[in-house]
């Protein structure tokens, strides 16, 4: 099934907006419309389109200001600007600043479609030069999300996968760094070759070198035969080095040499072996601090950190909690052969407000324990509470939230409650009147977050 590409149209002229919407809908695109740049920013808080087409001259924030905001916050999202007052110097300047396309009204529909397809081909390429469809998204099937920041990271994953650059994944323990490493592998041309993992913190130092590079017979006591290391086992594919920050300094030197020279030397051997392996590494540590303290080599850091991706914590993507909880519920209900249909409202509220220091891994464990112990079709508040071992379960009060994070906080609440202001205000510990004032202060329209059928996706 072909997955429609979403285009966000931004224009304060309703007639032109309607005309362009009709044309692009007929061309097979899913259209979201916004009648101002401010409304467009609201749309981007809710979901990510594949492309933005904006008028230049609008009341309030103009098209260029909108582009600059998008380029700063979502640099992978292409923007095409339409203007009635374009000149060649304007077009050159716009392209130099990063705008994908710049067309003067009245624009040629074919030219616009060509630019749209070109932009989508660059951002949604599946490796064959054609715009991807639903069948090409199997690489990301294990990553369950409706969070806009996560979608941005997945866009970067698809781009990174096209080449062979080393990738360093950052994030707290339990956020799913290995899932992202697998996604990069499965989206790449190496997908049919091995994906090999090793946790550098779990292997004793004296064995780690042999595990990575292999050894020859007689290299040390107990080496009764030649042993291939993980670099050789991953030949042609991907090697994932988890918790790279825990690798001993001596091995860091040998790993750096292997990455620079693309050869390894098994323990006890005098011969080198050429390798063709992509390396993805991950850490929950602050590697720059480790460099300053002398625990991690700076040259290795930059060899590993050609591309860096930071995976957000579960607390930063709370709108994903119901999705993940229900996914784990189905998985474990099937595993343990239990007839469980869902969660009680109180249990869901507890899950939504939990601190989740262990992130997605902790959530999975909580759901598994709840399923195992449940004797009813619904998971109760008590089961979830007990499974969480009475950890801190409340969001910080709204007064404690830093001012600069107010808008993100409000957006998350609206997503969690699907635009239910009463419930959102209750979660934020504010009365409705104050909450409405906060929404107005940040120009957030709660009606956009309500779950309803929209014939045109109007924002």
UniProtKB/TrEMBL annotation:
<dbReference type="InterPro" id="IPR001789">
    <property type="entry name" value="Sig_transdc_resp-reg_receiver"/>
</dbReference>
<dbReference type="InterPro" id="IPR003593">
    <property type="entry name" value="AAA+_ATPase"/>
</dbReference>
<dbReference type="InterPro" id="IPR011006">
    <property type="entry name" value="CheY-like_superfamily"/>
</dbReference>
<dbReference type="GO" id="GO:0005524">
    <property type="term" value="F:ATP binding"/>
</dbReference>
<feature type="modified residue" description="4-aspartylphosphate">
    <location>
        <position position="55"/>
    </location>
</feature>
<keyword id="KW-0902">Two-component regulatory system</keyword>
<dbReference type="InterPro" id="IPR025662">
    <property type="entry name" value="Sigma_54_int_dom_ATP-bd_1"/>
</dbReference>
<dbReference type="Pfam" id="PF00158">
    <property type="entry name" value="Sigma54_activat"/>
</dbReference>
<dbReference type="GO" id="GO:0006355">
    <property type="term" value="P:regulation of DNA-templated transcription"/>
</dbReference>
<dbReference type="Pfam" id="PF25601">
    <property type="entry name" value="AAA_lid_14"/>
</dbReference>
<dbReference type="GO" id="GO:0005737">
    <property type="term" value="C:cytoplasm"/>
</dbReference>
<dbReference type="GO" id="GO:0003677">
    <property type="term" value="F:DNA binding"/>
</dbReference>
<keyword id="KW-0804">Transcription</keyword>
<dbReference type="GO" id="GO:0000160">
    <property type="term" value="P:phosphorelay signal transduction system"/>
</dbReference>
<protein>
    <submittedName>
        <fullName>Putative DNA-binding response regulator in two-component system</fullName>
    </submittedName>
</protein>
<keyword id="KW-0010">Activator</keyword>
<keyword id="KW-0597">Phosphoprotein</keyword>
<dbReference type="Pfam" id="PF00072">
    <property type="entry name" value="Response_reg"/>
</dbReference>
<dbReference type="InterPro" id="IPR002078">
    <property type="entry name" value="Sigma_54_int"/>
</dbReference>
<dbReference type="InterPro" id="IPR058031">
    <property type="entry name" value="AAA_lid_NorR"/>
</dbReference>
<keyword id="KW-0067">ATP-binding</keyword>
<dbReference type="InterPro" id="IPR025944">
    <property type="entry name" value="Sigma_54_int_dom_CS"/>
</dbReference>
<feature type="domain" description="Sigma-54 factor interaction">
    <location>
        <begin position="143"/>
        <end position="372"/>
    </location>
</feature>
<keyword id="KW-0547">Nucleotide-binding</keyword>
<keyword id="KW-0805">Transcription regulation</keyword>
<dbReference type="InterPro" id="IPR025943">
    <property type="entry name" value="Sigma_54_int_dom_ATP-bd_2"/>
</dbReference>
<dbReference type="InterPro" id="IPR027417">
    <property type="entry name" value="P-loop_NTPase"/>
</dbReference>
<keyword id="KW-0963">Cytoplasm</keyword>
<keyword id="KW-0238">DNA-binding</keyword>
<dbReference type="InterPro" id="IPR009057">
    <property type="entry name" value="Homeodomain-like_sf"/>
</dbReference>
<feature type="domain" description="Response regulatory">
    <location>
        <begin position="6"/>
        <end position="120"/>
    </location>
</feature>
